[in-house]
Write a structure and sequence with these properties.
This protein is an alpha/beta fold. Strands 1, 2, 3, 4, 7, 8, 9, 10, 11 and 12 form a 10-stranded mixed beta sheet that branches. The chain has a two-stranded antiparallel ribbon with strand order 5-6. A two-stranded antiparallel ribbon has the order 13-16.
């Protein structure tokens, strides 16, 4: 049985956040004095260089509250994060992290040094290269943002660990595992590596920022912020994610990392294995939370969609909008299939080769302007009837 605390919180006041998080730690019987004398990795979501009110990144005050709790209890926090395209410095500057880093004297890990970590009983990927800094800490505190996701349906505690994979290597994984289920299994292999791959098992704590979440076409700037008023804390990432899905009324059957995660020997195997303490999910239920529009591909059509023409008929495709595009070409940089080229003479948007496009939607995820929308395939209405 995994214990998760659910706290009601509608403000990013650091003092209020600290009080709520400490209450949540008490509810799951996690003594913050465990931070005393420990090097503590803080892993926020800094997807790209965007402002905190976009709800694309872990709010800086939320990060600050966690960092201050660690420091107050004798710990030494280390920020470990690797944005997909932009530099970590730019991401921290735009998201408002730099003043906090300077004020609290928080160490920022070297992103260039990597080390291999293995997953016992991996299904898709046996080992990963992650930041070496994770090997040099005693406790890992994962501080994700709750968001919808066009490929994996949600991104929260489990998916946030993907940020441990350095920079552009993330897009290589998308190229290797373009299918939603395969990619989700790959993410679960990474979570399994964090659980079993260190020489000595590390304490992991997940503190989810769902004060303001991202709904709709997440996880980037195409999504829209919405107040969910919650903090969710637990030592089991699947239990934290499951609680967030139940809170927002999303369809758990679409959350592949959850459904497939329950079949792994990671901890919880169903929602029945989770005890929610603090507030009641029913009392805090968020209504009309909007999922991403991407429908995914039913199993019975996968063999057909291997043919490029069928893929273009039955699957959404990313479409740049000239009214919003600033030709920063971050989409081109991250594209794992090399399917995006420079703008033509007449159109002020990057050119997409939809025969090469693997529909990972990395371009849409990373676009700082929210300038990439989805266009349904001409025959996609057939899938809507299933």
């Amino acid at each position: 049985m995994a214990v998760v605390s659910l706290l009601k919180c509608t403000t990013y006041s650091v003092d209020v956040l600290k009080a709520k998080i400490l209450e949540g730690l008490m509810l799951i019987a996690f003594d913050p004095d465990r931070f005393d004398g420990a090097r503590v990795a803080l892993k926020p979501n800094l997807l790209s260089a965007v402002a905190p009110d976009s709800a694309v990144v872990t709010h800086p005050h939320f990060f600050q509250a966690v960092a201050e709790i660690v420091i107050d209890h004798g710990g030494r926090p280390v920020l470990i994060e690797s944005p997909a395209v932009v530099s970590l410095g730019n991401a921290m500057r735009k998201a408002g992290y730099l003043p906090i880093i300077d004020k609290l004297g928080i160490e920022v890990a070297d992103l260039d040094a990597v080390e291999k970590i293995s997953c016992e009983d991996a299904r898709m990927f046996t080992y990963f290269e992650i930041s070496r800094a994770f090997f040099n800490v005693d406790i890992i505190v994962n501080i994700p943002k709750f968001k919808t996701h066009g490929l994996t349906y949600i991104t929260a505690a489990v998916k946030n660990l993907f940020g441990a994979v350095p920079g552009m290597r993330k897009s290589q994984m998308h190229l290797r595992f373009p299918d939603k289920r395969e990619f989700s299994e790959h993410i679960l292999d990474l979570y399994g590596a964090f659980l079993t791959g260190f020489a000595e098992k590390k304490t992991m704590l997940h503190i989810l920022d769902a004060v303001v979440s991202l709904q709709g076409e997440g996880p980037g700037t195409s999504g829209s912020p919405t107040e969910t008023g919650a903090i969710i804390i637990g030592e089991d990432a699947l239990a934290v994610d499951c609680t967030a899905v139940r809170l927002t009324g999303l369809d758990m059957n679409h959350a592949a990392t959850l459904i497939m995660g329950f079949t792994r020997d990671f901890g919880v195997s169903s929602p029945d294995d989770i005890q929610v303490t603090g507030e009641s999910i029913d009392d805090m239920r968020v209504h009309d939370f909007v999922p991403a529009k991407s429908t995914g591909v039913p199993v019975f059509l996968r063999w057909t969609l291997a043919r490029k023409i069928m893929k273009n008929l039955f699957v959404e495709k990313p479409l740049p909008m000239q009214s919003a595009c600033i030709l920063c070409y971050q989409c081109r940089l991250i594209c794992p299939a090399d399917a995006i080229s420079a703008a033509g003479k007449k159109k002020r948007v990057p050119q997409f080769d939809y025969h090469r496009c693997i529909r990972c939607f990395c371009c849409r995820e990373i676009c700082p302007q929210g300038a990439i929308t989805l266009k349904r395939g001409a025959m996609q209405w057939l899938l809507m009837r299933r």
